Amino acid sequence: MRLIDPDKHTKFFRFDSLKMVLVLLTCMTNLIFADDYLSSEITENLTTLAADSSIHYRWHNDDWELSRKHIFHHDEFGQVTEDSRYVLSIDTWFNDIRNVMSYDTQNKLVQWLNQEGYLFIWQNSWLDQYEYDGYDALITKTRQIDDSDSWQLLERINYYYNEDSTLSEEIIQANVVGNWLNDYHRTYTYLPDGQVASILGQTWDYDGGVWLNDSLTSCSYTDGNLSQLLTQTWADDVWNNEHHKALTYDPDDHLIEETLRSWFGRQWFEIERQVHEIDLSGNVMITRYQDWDYDEANWFDRDRLLFQYDEYGKLVESLSQYPDSETNTWINEYLSIWYYPTTSAVDAFQARQFSLSQNFPNPFNPSTSIRFDIPEYSAVNLTIYDALGREIITLFAGAKPAGSYEMSWQGLDQEGHSVSTGVYFCRFQVLDSGTGGVGDFNQTIKMLYLK
After folding, report:
1. Contact 231, 217 (CB under 8 A)
2. Is the peptide bond before 366 cis (omega within 30 degrees of 0)?
3. How distant is the alpha carbon of residue 273 from its chain centre?
4. Which residue has the higher pLDDT, 16 or 379?
5. pLDDT, position 342
6. Do 231 and 374 sit in the same domain of this protein?
7. In which element (H, E) is residue 70 found?
């Protein structure tokens, strides 16, 4: 018996802080099946880091016309507190969807309210609440839905971890007449280097009181990069192939191709693929979505996305187009433009003490921002280490005046090589002005890098 579709729930995430509520758009190299464990509901449907707003157009009658807009609000730490979306109809902006996020004093996400728009008013839809253990690890997510202006418990997800802090299990439960009943179970296994090896999905058998196999996702890696994903379903007491995804990277470990195949008649058939064109900075400039033509035995373009970035690497424009077979040209479809604050809240924040904030996005790919505060002129070090304590790269070593600062890490080591997926630590040290050694302040945060 299945009460709830597990794909609607939070995927794999081990957040020491859920400060990350934003991810880059399609250019973040989403993995179709990897999303089952490499992303989080916390990051879905939100756009680029620290954007103030975005405007969306659609191509109509050979011209661009306004279609939608997003307005973002941030707190003094740069975290999104509200994401409001509106649609334009009959020259009037109508409410569409709004997300309102609340954080605790440690900047961990504790509440997420989702509302739907009805003309010019907002109506509650669902409310998620998050609980953490003493190590800031998420242990429970509980969802309530609005039922006739009152909140009713719907479901909850319980998270369990291994000794090395990696996620080991998720148990999804449904609330039935005031009782929590098991519904779906995920078990994660890992390779010795910390890479995810498999994810086993099981449904609860209420008659037998046991978990029954449902799905199995197996992961393969090449040079530390996720290269294959095999999805199988359980039937007739055996695992049966369902989907296979192959991922290809360039010499700099940038994802450039994703090919999806489906199992039919005891063989694999190509279904679709994504091809990414990367610039020298590692940004995705073009993503082409293609389908397999069995008559012609080749790939043909379905549509494509073109991206533009500013001098700081922030996404500022994405253009969606589809091919016209008659004219052999690309036809405009949608255009999105993002706007960023000229002065961020972090820049205006006056540091009163030494502090290191949790990086965000976290998990991240391809880059993450790390912020630290200095109340007075000081010499500091900001260094990245792997899970074994080996130094990966020093992001900054030197003196800075009082203020709030932000450094970016692109997942590269000191030689410029891309690191493997896994847990990393960032240590912020204040140096003693007299001896040059470590001073009184020394703080470390945990980060998760995903490919």
Report:
1. yes
2. yes
3. 21
4. 379
5. 56
6. no
7. strand 63-74
Closest to 196 (Cα-Cα) out of 226, 171, 172: 226
Looking at the fold, whether 74 and 221 belong to one and the same domain comes out as yes
The amino acid that residue 344 corresponds to is: S
Tokens 């975290």 identify what position? 79
Residue type at position 117: G
| Helix and strand numbers, DSSP H then E, in the chain | 2, 27
Residue 315 above 50 pLDDT?
yes
- Report the run of H or E that residue 154 belongs to, with start and end: strand 151-161
Reported pTM: 0.69
The number of distinct structural domains making up the chain is 2
240 and 277 within one domain: yes
Cα gap 231→263, rounded to integer Å: 10
Q: What is the pLDDT of residues 1-50, one digit of tens each?
A: 334 333 333 333 333 333 222 222 222 223 323 333 222 333 333 334 45
Rounded to whole angstroms, the Cα distance separating 448 from 135 reads: 15
Check if the beta carbon of residue 3 is closer than 8 Å to that of residue 176.
Answer: yes
Cβ–Cβ under 8 Å, residues 386 and 449: no
Which residue range is the domain that position 397 belongs to? 350-449
* Structural tokens at position 349: 């924040």
Give the integer Cα–Cα distance in Å for 112 and 110: 7
pLDDT in tens, 215-272: 999 999 998 888 999 999 999 999 999 999 999 999 888 889 999 999 998 999 999 9
Does any domain span residue 64?
A: yes
- The average pLDDT across 372-383 equals 87
Q: Is residue 209 scored above 90 in pLDDT?
A: yes
Other residues' Cβ atoms within 10 Å of the Cβ of residue 203: 20
